């Protein structure tokens, strides 16, 4: 059973454009929603995270939008740059107990100059 | 270095051989995780260690897979009688309990011929 569904699988955006990646989850017990960024040959690194007490969180050009009722959250990258080209993973977790994260399948983003 | 260290970075083995992958977490991090990343796929949870508690082995795909963590620090993931479907990048991560952020190593790429 897929607990988190991520889309699209791949995305091509022109420099300066907006990149949008979506995730949907099933279990309402999840209360931690991070996005990780992975460059080739490297391990994933935390980009931005949100908890369900807010509907939006912004850090620089990166914004998470969270819709609790729809059980969906999305990553928006404003003014996308070629250096943003990477694979992005959403994840879901529960703060009850420990930080076991369940990851989405990933989105490969290419930003063309 | 201050990050999570994994070795070997690359391992090529023949089907049926046993392999050991090592992870050295960030000093002071009590939680340690193993994930598997198959080509073009997401991150599959394998096992989690937290202090002296019994590990969460719920993600191990078969009894050919095992892991231990000695002295609350270094961890070894062992795959016995390797199969071609075991080919993947094995990622280790560590975290402080309840911060939510996982710090990943660069992974060990396993190729089973």
Q: Can you walk through the features of this model?
A:
The complex is a heterodimer of chains A (113) and B (113). With 113 residues, chain A is mainly beta. Chain A has a single domain, classed as Immunoglobulins (Immunoglobulin-like), CATH 2.60.40. Chain A has no helices and 11 strands. In chain A, strands 2, 4, 5, 9, 10 and 11 form a 6-stranded mixed β-sheet that branches. Chain A has a 5-stranded antiparallel β-sheet with strand order 1-3-8-7-6, with no helix packed on it. Chain A starts with a strand and ends with a strand. The relative contact order of chain A is 0.34. Chain B has one domain: Immunoglobulins (Immunoglobulin-like), CATH 2.60.40.10. Chain B is built from no helices and 10 strands. The mean pLDDT of chain B is 92. Chains A and B meet through strand 5, strand 9 and strand 10 of A and strand 4, strand 5, strand 8 and strand 9 of B.
Note the topology.
The complex is a heterodimer of chains A (113) and B (113).
Chain A: E1 4-7, E2 10-14, E3 19-25, E4 33-38, E5 45-50, E6 56-59, E7 62-67, E8 72-77, E9 86-93, E10 101-103, E11 107-112
Parallel strand pairs in A: 2-11
Antiparallel strand pairs in A: 1-3, 3-8, 4-5, 4-9, 6-7, 7-8, 9-10, 9-11
Chain B: E1 5-7, E2 10-13, E3 19-24, E4 31-37, E5 43-50, E6 65-69, E7 75-79, E8 88-95, E9 103-104, E10 108-112
Parallel strand pairs in B: 2-10
Antiparallel strand pairs in B: 1-3, 3-7, 4-5, 4-8, 6-7, 8-9, 8-10
């Amino acid at each position: 059973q897929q607990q988190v569904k991520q889309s699209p699988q791949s995305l091509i955006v022109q420099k300066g454009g907006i990149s949008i990646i979506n995730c949907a989850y099933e279990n309402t017990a999840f209360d931690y929603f991070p996005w990780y960024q992975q460059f080739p040959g490297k391990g994933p690194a935390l980009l931005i995270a949100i908890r369900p007490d807010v509907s939006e969180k912004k850090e620089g050009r990166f914004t998470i939008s969270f819709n609790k009722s729809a059980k969906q959250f999305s990553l928006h990258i404003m003014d996308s740059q070629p250096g943003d080209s990477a694979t992005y993973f959403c994840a879901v977790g529960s703060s009850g107990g420990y930080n076991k994260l369940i990851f989405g399948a990933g989105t490969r983003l290419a930003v063309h100059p | 270095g201050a990050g999570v260290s994994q070795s070997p970075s690359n391992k090529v083995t023949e089907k049926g051989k046993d392999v050991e992958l090592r992870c050295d977490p960030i000093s002071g991090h009590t939680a340690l995780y193993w994930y598997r990343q198959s080509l073009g796929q997401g991150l599959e949870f394998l096992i989690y260690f937290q202090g002296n508690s019994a590990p969460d082995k719920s993600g191990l795909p078969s009894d050919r897979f095992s892991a231990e963590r000695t002295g609350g620090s270094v961890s070894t993931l062992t795959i016995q009688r390797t199969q071609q479907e075991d080919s993947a990048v094995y990622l280790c991560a560590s975290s402080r309990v309840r911060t939510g952020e996982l710090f990943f190593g660069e992974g060990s790429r396993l190729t089973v011929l």
